[in-house]
Design a protein that fits this description.
This protein is an alpha+beta fold and about 425 residues long. The protein has helices at about 5-10, 15-25, 45-55, 70-75, 140-155, 180-190, 235-240, 240-250, 285-295, 300-315, 320-325, 345-360, 375-380, 405-420, and strands at about 60-65, 90-95, 105-110, 125-130, 130-135, 165-170, 195-200, 205-210, 210-220, 225, 260-265, 270, 275-285, 330-335, 340, 365-370, 385, 400-405.
Length: about 425
């Protein structure tokens, strides 16, 4: 049941203001430098723009650098040595009352995936058929617009609240970034009492996420002239398909559990390719985490990785040329699954109640379909929910878009959840 003050809070959402900010951000290219695009822009211009927005709101601003050491501290396998310059994380702090109440943190990411194969202008920010179109509208500049609008709603109706609202706009969530920006904020900011990661489906509350491991398999061959032969690395790679099929079957052969995402080999039909590169994303589960924790004391996908390597080894051992020149496996990342219910089950009920009161809808509660930054917060013992303005399956597509009505709905839910938390 909404109070008079909460009704006033929700009435303060400004659709036009949120559209304008989302369009502004979409029109600034912030493609992750490791996206695979030929000339990715990086996040710098977008980070400067959002700092100006927060400054105009009266926030206390700080910058958190991306820190590889945080992966070591929290025992996460992820790429190291990525670009640091012009890729900081923006932190904006707002104080309510005397500031002595709880701290609530909101998190959304600035970087986007590639645009080279986007259908049309990826930076148009066009408003059409009730939707904003362009790269990042759903993932995750719409999330940033929701964060800012929720903060503005709280600032316009601050009565009865005490504590701090911390807004983090982070980098390196996409393109194997492994949530480096969010984890750096977890590592370097005072521990908040609760958090929401704004990234995902607007019709549900995320109570955790699956894990993911990423494998790169290099298959060697011997180069030569096409007319005279060699050992063709592409044909060698094809010989590994039974191993992949066996692994997929052992993992349950569910949609999305195993994605063969990269096959790169060869430079000309006149040459025998000397090397082939394959890359895979493999989902991991909470059960995988528990099994690894029981054996090694760390929640990870290590047992799944070992199973993958065994499947390859069995196929290699049965074929002479693979035995002579065996493939090698490199593990790019291993990001653990996590669950809100394992950290703070009451927090989910709290979020559900506020979402229902803010939107009039009962939210679906489920884990994020893939891995998400909320895992870093949960593994640090911070009660965390996920929510986003998007529609399932639209992020990363060649026609990314977000419905304006969903931006408004999500902003109301985030604002009321934060308001009630800061009124506790």
């Amino acid at each position: 049941m909404l109070t008079v003050q909460e009704n006033a809070l929700l009435a303060g959402v400004d659709e036009g203001r949120m559209i304008a900010l989302c369009r502004q951000l979409v029109r600034i290219p912030t493609v992750n430098p490791y996206s695979g695009d030929k000339s990715p822009a990086g996040e710098w211009a977008g980070l400067l723009a959002i700092e100006e927005v927060f400054k105009a709101m009266g926030a206390t601003l700080s910058r958190i650098p991306c820190d590889d050491e945080a992966f070591t501290r929290y025992r996460v396998l992820a790429p190291r040595g990525r670009q640091v310059e012009r890729r900081h994380n923006v932190v904006a702090e707002f104080v309510f009352g005397d500031g002595q109440g709880p701290t609530f943190l909101l998190d959304a990411h600035m970087d986007t995936v590639a645009v080279d194969k986007y259908d049309g202008d990826p930076f148009s920010g066009e408003l059409r058929d009730g939707c904003l179109h362009g790269r990042g509208t759903t993932d995750d500049k719409g999330g940033i617009a929701v964060m800012v609008e929720a903060a503005k709603m709280l600032l316009a109706c601050p009565g009865g609240r005490r504590g701090k609202l911390v807004c983090c706009v982070v980098t390196d969530e996409e393109s194997d970034g492994s949530g480096r920006g969010s984890l750096s904020c977890v590592a370097h900011l005072p521990k908040p009492d609760g958090a929401m990661v704004i990234d995902g489906d607007c019709n549900c509350l995320q109570d955790g996420c699956t894990g993911v491991v990423t494998a790169r398999v290099t298959v060697p061959g011997r180069t030569g002239h096409a007319a005279y032969g060699g050992l063709n690395a592409i044909e060698q790679a094809f010989k590994l398909l039974p191993a992949l099929a066996r692994f997929r079957a052992l993992r349950g052969d569910q949609p999305g559990m195993f994605n063969f995402g990269v096959f790169q080999a060869g430079d000309h039909p006149a040459n025998v390719p000397a090397s082939a590169l394959l890359a895979f994303n493999i989902k991991t589960s909470l059960a995988d985490m528990r099994a690894a924790q029981a054996r090694d004391g760390v929640d990870s996908g290590v047992l799944v990785r070992e199973q993958f390597e065994r499947c390859l080894a069995e196929t290699v051992s049965a074929e002479e040329t693979l035995r002579a020149l065996p493939p090698t496996v490199t593990w790019v990342k291993d990001l653990p699954a996590a669950s809100t219910m394992a950290v703070a089950p009451d927090f989910m009920a709290f979020g559900q109640s506020a979402y229902l009161d803010a939107t009039g809808m009962v939210p679906v509660v489920k884990p994020l379909g893939g891995w998400g930054d909320l895992a870093h917060f949960l593994r640090a013992g911070i009660p965390t929910l996920g929510i986003g303005p998007g529609t399932l399956g639209v992020a990363h597509t060649a026609s990314e878009r977000v419905a304006v009505a969903d931006l408004v709905k999500t902003a109301k839910a985030v604002a009321l959840i934060a308001a009630r938390f800061l009124s506790a």
